[in-house]
Design goal:
about 160 residues; disordered C terminus
Length: about 160
């Protein structure tokens, strides 16, 4: 009559009501990867030919900086990240840049920051986003913080002056 139910014949109970939680969508990472490759091409492309470095030096200097701006726009507008990730990612980029500039050797500040340090940091951010595109937000955000916030561009910039 009143048979006990076992796990095998118990009805499924959803943990959350239908429609209360959006399904996880991975990051749209191809723009970040494309922009990272274009940053590399803009930085090192003009130096391939003998006269390229002299003629197209502005591409090598300002191309990666433009790539940084486009990566920031991608992250805030088209990455499919949650709003929390977008906010903390943006704040993490700003904090990392501020820490890097503050801790960098005085010779690495100014033009070198825009030419070398910021593009390198944004490049690492783009690669981390592309590599972790299928990870759920808590894992993805935590790993990004562990890899990016300690100031890896700062360490490289400081090593350049030693």
């Amino acid at each position: 009559m009143n048979a006990l139910t076992t796990e095998g014949n118990a009805p499924e109970r959803p943990g959350t009501p239908d429609g209360s939680r959006k399904p996880f969508r991975p990051l749209r990472a191809w723009p970040a990867f494309l922009l990272a490759v274009l940053m590399l091409a803009a930085r090192f492309g003009p130096g391939i030919s003998e006269e390229g470095a002299a003629k197209y030096w502005m591409v090598a200097v300002f191309g990666p900086l433009l790539g940084c701006l486009l990566l920031l726009i991608w992250w805030l507008a088209a990455s499919r990240a949650t709003w929390r990730e977008r906010l903390f990612g943006f704040l993490g980029l700003v904090a990392s840049a501020a820490i890097t500039i503050t801790l960098a050797h005085p010779t690495m500040r100014g033009a070198t920051t825009t030419y070398l340090t910021l593009p390198m940091g944004f490049f690492l951010f783009a690669l981390t986003a592309a590599l972790l595109k299928k990870s759920p937000p808590p894992i993805c955000s935590g790993t990004r913080c562990c890899l990016f916030l300690p100031g890896s561009p700062c360490r490289y910039s400081c090593a350049m002056t030693a």
